[in-house]
Amino acid sequence: MAPRETVVCIGCPLGCRVTVLRDRKGNIAGLKGADCRQGEKYVLKELENPVRTLTATVRTGDEGFPLLPVRTSRPVPKALLAPIMQETVKVKVRPPVRTGDVIAKNVSKSRADLIATADWPGPRGEG
Amino acid sequence: MAKRVDVAVIGAGPAGLAAAIAAREQGAENVLIIERAEQLGGLLPQCIHNGFGLVYFEQDMTGPEYEKAFMDRAVDMGVETQLETMVIDLDEKREITAVSRKHGYMKFRPGAVVLAMGCRERSRGAVGIPGTRPAGVLTAGTCQRFVNIEGYMPGSRYVVLGSGDIGMIMARRLTLEGAKVEAVVEIMPWPGGLIRNEVQCLHDFGIPLLLEHTVSFIHGEERVEGVTVCRVDAQRQPMQGTERLIPCDCLLISAGLIPENELSRRAGVALDPVTGGPVVDQDRQTSVPGIFAGGNVVQVHDLVDWVSREAEVAGRSAAVFADKGRAKRTAGIKVVPGKNVRYVVPQLISGAGDVTLHMRVKEPGLSARLDVGGVLKKKFRSVRPSEMIVLDLEGEALRKSGIKGELVVDCDTKGSG
Predict the structure, then answer these.
(1) Do A8 and B49 touch (CB under 8 A)?
(2) pTM over 0.90
């Protein structure tokens, strides 16, 4: 038997634990445990294509400001989180950077860019 | 000689910035923020994750983005700042004593003060875990600073004690950075943080959440080598025979936050034993006239958005006080936590004018009916201790109810959440 698949709805603080019922072909046959229609919609969306905004940092080489915080410009499929993290290691960033600047384009072919979430005017040196 | 300012704000985190901006908007001419760190923003720069600003800006922002929005405003409004300056004393006459490497010993005499010192994490000592004292035991917030600001990884295999929001967020962050998080261990039967963090930080990465469990021993001489995890009984005491060893090289502690009120105490501000913060009225004035408070120094909030809103009230009231030399009288009615309500802030209200009540329940429950002294009743599908309840109470309804003395807030629930 396939492991019981449950998805927790985060639409409200209720946090319904929704069980996903599947037929023999693996298609979704129904949902059990959602308290409202919004919850069911959320779970179906989660099953079809779960997306998340990834936040991370990239190295600057500046001792006084070693890391620049970044995020994806839009939510990306969950499966791309790890590949994008691996890409952030290789990203080279040059000052000056303003919040919202694109740091890397179309990371891991996600159609999302990495954008800066803080300003980095330039080397601050140590301390 | 003491320097005179209209409003002095102690702390430059989200509360301090919002309070200072609001004080300027209210017309206070010189507003000074005193901050011990070398930069503004408090802890926001290290909170690189998203989920900020959903209430305040109706936007999904990261910590640094949220901080920038307020910092730019503060600069535009001409708020003065005194960085790398530690306030060492505040007295009941609102005189501030501070020290800095650059300016030495300083005194300030403000027309009004806003306390915005935030909170600090409970550490290993506060939790009291037996074992040796090896390297590799740190709070989740310290780890967050290492990983997100300094660029160091404190370990490669982690156990997190406590399922507070910072602990769960760090569990995700460390996993994304290539570390292994063995488990998040929570002593209560329910998670300590927001449901969205349980889902997006733990479920997404298959990190086990062990409810009704605790860490009963830390192993290792020089460095953490593992922790003993065991079940707890209904009294939250470790149960013999349930112990198991989880090998790891780092233990993160995320066991709750405590409002930072050493200065408040020095000034003789009355503290609420439940919130750990000052007793405040609806203008966020403390028991000492002219001393106001807002943000996590008053109560530990779940969302930074509420921190900003509360601090704005404190900032506006401080500006009015600095101008008039006194506050309008607001403390007439005591707000009393009743059934399944742990606390309500503000603790004192006037009975006139709109007021926003913040509260937390003791235990989770479904189909909750909240009753504010018969003046306001509201239903909630569910309530949880980790999610603050925010309620707007209309001054008109309050006035009409004719309530005097006490306003009791009850929360009836059906079943557990």
Answers:
(1) no
(2) yes
